[in-house]
From TrEMBL:
The keyword Chaperone does not apply. Belongs to the Mrp/NBP35 ATP-binding proteins family. In the C-terminal section; belongs to the Mrp/NBP35 ATP-binding proteins family. PANTHER family: IRON-SULFUR PROTEIN NUBPL. This is Iron-sulfur cluster carrier protein. It comes from Deinococcus rhizophilus. Residues 2-73 form the MIP18 family-like domain.
Length: 349
C-alpha cells in the first residue's frame, strides 16, 4: 500500500510550480497504517498562498487509494534558492522600489516583511533609504541604537519577528545626511556585508525612490532574486514606475510584480468605494503580475505611526488582508523564480 500511496502523491501538482510534489522533493513523509495515511508536505515557503488547495488535492488523491480511509496532512516549509545564496545565510534578497516618493513604498515593505515573518519565515528588513529612513519608526524602534557583536559586525535590531537595520538607528535623530555617491555606496556595502544577518529566508530591502546610487550599488554588489514595484494608479506615478522597471531590467534584476497602493478608498460611514487616484493603472506597466491592490486606509497610517505594521495590528482590515495577499503572492513568485534553476528531479527528503 505504501507504493500506491506514493504513486497517488505523484499525481498531485504544486499549483504554481506545475510539477508533482514527489519530484519536487516536497513530500517529507508518507506512511500508512490501519487505513490511516500520514503525509507531511514541505512547502516551498511558509507563506504559501495555495496551501489550502495543496492540502485538498493531497486528500483527494490519497483517499482514492484502496484501503485508505483517512488522511492526516501536516505541513513544514523549506525556502529554496536556485543558486548560491545572495549573502552568507540569506536565501533571497528582494528589493521594494518605486519611481517616485509618496506612494507608500516603505509601508508596503514593512508590511510584506511582517506578514512573511508572521507566516513563519525568517525575515530581515534593510532600510536602504539612507536620506529618509522610516523603517525604524514604523517598527516602533526609532530610539534604539545599533551595536556590534563579538566579531565587530553590526547586530541587526529586532521587532515583530523581523531583523532590521536602518540609518535612523545609527545617526542622531533629525540630523540630515549630506553624502555623495561614494559614501552611500560604502554605507550600503556595510549594511549588506558587515552586518550579522544570520540565517534568513528573505531579506527585504526598502529602496529610496527613484533610480539613483543606492539602486546601482545594490544591484552591482549582490545577487538579487527580484524586485517589487510600488505605485499608485495615477499616470504621474506610473510614468516614474515605468522608469524604475526599466532600470531593474537594465541591471538584469527580474521584476516579480507590481503593488498598486492607495488603489481605492472605502468611506467608513457609507461603505461607498471611491477611486481617488483612478484604479487599475498598474495594468499599463507592461503586463507585469499584479501582486495586489491595497486600499487607502487611515488605520495603516495610524499603525505605522504607532510602530506596529497593519497586518499585525488590524489583520482583518481590508488593507491588511490586501497586504497579506501581496506578501504571499510575492513568496509564490519567488518560489517560481527559484524553480527555474533547480534540477528536474529533486531528492525525496
Amino acid at each position: 500500500m505504501r507504493d500506491a500511496l506514493w504513486a497517488a502523491l505523484k499525481t498531485v501538482n504544486d499549483p504554481e510550480l506545475h510539477r508533482d510534489l514527489v519530484s519536487l522533493g516536497m513530500i517529507e513523509r508518507a506512511e500508512v497504517g490501519g487505513g490511516v495515511a500520514q503525509v507531511k508536505v514541505n512547502l516551498t515557503t511558509p507563506a504559501c498562498p495555495l496551501k489550502g488547495q495543496i492540502e485538498g488535492d493531497v486528500r483527494s488523491a490519497v483517499l482514492a487509494v484502496p484501503g485508505i480511509k483517512e488522511v492526516v496532512v501536516t505541513f513544514g516549509a523549506m525556502v529554496r534558492t536556485g543558486g548560491q545564496p545572495a549573502l552568507p545565510g540569506v536565501k533571497h534578497v528582494l528589493l521594494v522600489g518605486s519611481g517616485k516618493g509618496g506612494v507608500g513604498k516603505s509601508s508596503v515593505a514593512v508590511n510584506i516583511a511582517a506578514s512573511l515573518a508572521r507566516d513563519g519565515a525568517r525575515v530581515g528588513l534593510l532600510d536602504a533609504d539612507v536620506y529618509g529612513p522610516s523603517v525604524a519608526h514604523m517598527l516602533g524602534r526609532s530610539a534604539e541604537r545599533v551595536t556590534a557583536n563579538a566579531e565587530r559586525k553590526m547586530q541587526p535590531l529586532e521587532a515583530h519577528g523581523i531583523r532590521f537595520l536602518s540609518m535612523a538607528n545609527l545617526s542622531p535623530a533629525g540630523q540630515a545626511l549630506v553624502w555623495r555617491g561614494p559614501m552611500l555606496h560604502s554605507a550600503i556595502q556595510q549594511f549588506l556585508k558587515d552586518a550579522a544577518w544570520g540565517d534568513l529566508d528573505y531579506l527585504i530591502v526598502d529602496l529610496p525612490p527613484g533610480t539613483g546610487d543606492v539602486q546601482l550599488s545594490l544591484t552591482q554588489t549582490i545577487q538579487v532574486t527580484g524586485a517589487v514595484i510600488v505605485t499608485t494608479p495615477q499616470d504621474v506615478a506610473l510614468i516614474d514606475a515605468a522608469r524604475a522597471i526599466d532600470m531593474f531590467r537594465k541591471a538584469s534584476v527580474p521584476v516579480l510584480g507590481v503593488v498598486e497602493n492607495m488603489s481605492y478608498f472605502v468611506a467608513p460611514d457609507t461603505g461607498l468605494t471611491y477611486d481617488l487616484f483612478g484604479r487599475g493603472g498598474s495594468q499599463k506597466l507592461g503586463g507585469l503580475p499584479l501582486l495586489g491592490e491595497v486600499p487607502l486606509d487611515m488605520e495603516v497610517r495610524k499603525d505605522s505611526d504607532a510602530g506596529e505594521p497593519a497586518v499585525l495590528a488590524h489583520p482583518d482590515s481590508a488593507a491588511a488582508q490586501a497586504l497579506t495577499g501581496v506578501a504571499r503572492a510575492l513568496a509564490g513568485r519567488v518560489s517560481v523564480q527559484a524553480l527555474a534553476d533547480l534540477p528536474d528531479q529533486l531528492p525525496v527528503v
